[in-house]
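Example for tutorial group B:
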């Protein structure tokens, strides 16, 4: 085989948001030995939309998420960076070096490096840059990475050829994002191991390098369950490898591109990008594709994103317009109610890691002591009466929940009456079983109840409405303060992606009584159901403060004030 002349390879380090640092390495490589470089992810065309491609899902199969990501992005590499999976500080340093030098990162089992050796051999790497205790990898030379910048420069010069190092890239927030042009190599404790270096202009790009990701790649990465263990090691290595390849990395609290304002913005700003999802939690390609489509086309919720939770908490005024006796909402006109809800939500912000959104829980069918013309013991508000509150809330970024007290009719019948309002992206629904009467019952003599089958009918109808009109996820609240109020609760259907179900604890009284109700209601909660809480201004002794409310465990996602 003919051997060509040697050439200079420049390794350029850039973050997802721009140039962060450049490590200019010159490595003498024969033409035939030159790394083949990056693999351009090739998504299949979307038949329903020829202008787009289907996303790629890299799952965390037996091979591991880190190896799968390396195989997705790199055909060859001159070296790889490795660290033991049980050493978090070493993993962060290794991730920094992988991003800085544009090579893959792999977590290693200190007792068995066979899987890493297999991947090193696939990549044609002649060196492994080891951070921490890495076992003998046979054919690859082990280079131990030092801790300080000067030693790193010396190591690269000695072992990887003549070079001029300008800076090393940093790892902030576990490599999820770098937001400074001053690149610093950090440990988990955010203690600098190497000081900031000057940024430089990009070097001429090699055969493997970020410029070859054309079209660009958007890598979605969901947070692991904890910041330790094998899962976390695989996560941080996969994230570093994607960034090293030049992908724009989008960190997500949950594996769904609709999760937050930032993830939706990233999808919309990179409509020409190939989407690569790292981790099996993203579901099938078809499921992910529909969620990517939604991120582009579906309106966002107040506070951003298209999923109700966990991207926000809601603090609501409860009541009926113009009726102060029914709750705080009716104590003032709509503009003043909005200001009051905003002020109340702000009181919760110091105690929530998620954004806090003001909300209204607006009673649109009111339980009545008289049967009325229809015999249902429920007074139904006119849509025209409610519409000004809905429109004002939309303009102010306030979420609205329409509350139903149906008397002797069923919840679905009443929900359909407000279909026009429920087509609004910022409007959800609440069902109050206390006021759901059986034939022959009347309010204040019995406490009503509903069975799960009736709730599931509402869930299906609301989910279909949401899908038909390309709406963001809907919140469906179920009020409860006794177990008997929701029969067969374990059969509640949480499978519809368009609707998120929340049990709202309505008990009032002294703290001990309220906590007893709370503890009973959260026991045996069906999977996929969230929890909410109500504070009564006049009937709680005392009314919980925002700080106390957020300490009840778990912190409620929806809090209303009556």
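The residue assignment follows.
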């Amino acid at each position: 085989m003919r051997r060509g002349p040697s050439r200079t390879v420049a390794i350029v380090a850039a973050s997802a948001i721009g140039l962060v640092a450049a490590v200019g390495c010159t490595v003498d490589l024969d033409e035939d030995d030159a790394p083949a470089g990056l693999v351009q992810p090739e998504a299949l065309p979307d038949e329903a939309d020829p202008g787009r491609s289907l996303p790629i899902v890299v799952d965390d199969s037996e091979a591991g998420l880190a190896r799968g990501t390396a195989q997705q992005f790199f055909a060859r590499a001159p070296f790889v960076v490795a660290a033991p999976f049980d050493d978090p500080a070493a993993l962060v340093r290794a991730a920094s070096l992988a991003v800085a030098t544009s090579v893959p990162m792999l977590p290693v089992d200190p007792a068995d490096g066979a899987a890493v050796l297999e991947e090193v051999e696939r990549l044609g790497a002649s060196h492994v840059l080891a951070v921490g205790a890495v076992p003998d990898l046979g054919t690859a030379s082990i280079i131990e990475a030092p801790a300080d910048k000067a030693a790193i420069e010396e190591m690269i010069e000695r072992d990887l050829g003549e070079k001029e190092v300008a800076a090393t890239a940093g790892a902030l927030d576990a490599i999820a994002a770098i937001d400074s042009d001053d690149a610093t190599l950090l440990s988990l404790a955010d203690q600098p191991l190497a000081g900031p270096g000057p940024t430089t202009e990009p070097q001429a790009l090699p055969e493997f390098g970020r410029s070859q990701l054309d079209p660009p790649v958007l890598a979605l990465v969901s947070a692991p369950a904890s910041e330790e263990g094998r899962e976390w090691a695989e996560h941080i290595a996969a994230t570093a490898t994607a960034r090293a390849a030049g992908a724009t990395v989008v960190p997500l609290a949950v594996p769904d591109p609709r999760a937050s304002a930032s993830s939706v913005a990233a999808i919309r700003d990179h409509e020409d990008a190939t989407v690569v999802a790292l981790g099996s939690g993203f579901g099938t390609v078809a499921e992910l594709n529909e969620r990517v489509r939604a991120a582009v086309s579906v309106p966002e919720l107040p506070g951003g994103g298209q999923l109700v939770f966990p991207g926000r908490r809601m603090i609501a005024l409860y009541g009926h317009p113009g009726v102060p006796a029914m709750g705080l909402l009716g104590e003032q006109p709509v503009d003043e109610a909005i200001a009051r809800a905003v002020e109340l939500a702000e009181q919760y912000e110091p105690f929530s890691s998620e954004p806090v959104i003001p909300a209204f829980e607006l009673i649109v069918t009111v339980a009545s002591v008289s049967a009325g013309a229809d015999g249902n013991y429920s007074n139904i508000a006119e849509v025209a009466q409610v519409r000004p509150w809905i429109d004002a809330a939309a303009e102010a970024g306030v979420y609205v929940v329409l509350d139903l007290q149906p008397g002797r009719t069923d919840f679905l019948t009443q929900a359909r009456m407000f279909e026009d309002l429920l087509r609004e992206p910022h409007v959800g629904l609440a069902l109050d079983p206390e006021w759901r009467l059986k034939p022959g019952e009347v309010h204040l003599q019995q406490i009503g109840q509903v069975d799960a089958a009736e709730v599931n009918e509402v869930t299906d109808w609301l989910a279909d409405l949401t899908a038909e009109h390309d709406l963001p996820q809907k919140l469906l609240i179920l009020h409860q303060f006794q177990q008997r109020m929701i029969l067969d609760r374990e059969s509640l259907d949480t499978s519809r992606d368009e609707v998120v179900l929340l049990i709202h604890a309505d008990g009032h009284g002294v703290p001990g009584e309220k906590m007893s109700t709370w503890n009973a209601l959260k026991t045996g909660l069906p999977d996929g159901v969230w929890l909410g809480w109500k504070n009564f201004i006049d009937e709680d002794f005392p009314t919980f403060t925002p700080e106390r409310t957020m300490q009840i465990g778990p912190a409620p996602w929806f809090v209303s004030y009556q």
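The chain has two domains: 11-297, 313-561. Compare this with the pattern of hydrophobic and polar residues in the output above.
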